[in-house]
Write a structure and sequence with these properties.
By secondary structure, the chain is of the alpha+beta class. 22% of the residues lie in helices and 39% in strands.
Length: 133
């Protein structure tokens, strides 16, 4: 998750001696202590994605799937949710197929914070025919 921080403060201008209102803004990317993991690991995730989409994508008569990106959250129960297309394939059928594929994937092991509590974690999945996921 991204944490946006804004600090408002007063500062004395070194030249004029007058007080000025100022602010400082920055973003912190929070990473869980233990990242969420697909049950069975990366190879099982790739196997799931290929096994449940490749034939349907090939049926669309595409020689090469353009780079497509989805974002999603693995919630506290390990369920993928809030799936969105970040970069479209240009084919609504394929975009919808990939969204449904992520939404229906088996539960993950959820992420954990520093004290062992489960937390949500955001992911980006990039797919292309030439290099897979």
């Amino acid at each position: 998750s991204l944490l946006n921080v804004r600090v408002d403060y007063n500062s004395e201008n070194a030249v004029t001696g007058e007080k000025e209102e100022k602010n400082l803004q920055f973003t912190i990317n929070l990473i869980p202590e233990v990242e969420a993991q697909y049950n069975g690991g990366y190879e099982q995730l790739i196997s799931y994605l290929r096994g449940n989409s490749l034939d349907k994508i090939l049926d669309r008569d595409h020689e090469q799937l353009p780079m497509t990106a989805l974002t999603f959250t693995v919630d506290k129960m390990g369920k993928p949710s809030a799936v969105q297309v970040k970069k479209t394939s240009g084919d609504e059928f394929i975009d919808d197929l990939l969204i449904k594929l992520v939404e229906s994937m088996p539960a993950w092991k959820p992420a954990k914070n520093y004290n062992g509590g489960v937390v949500e974690q955001n992911f980006e999945l990039t797919v292309a025919a030439s290099n897979g996921c």
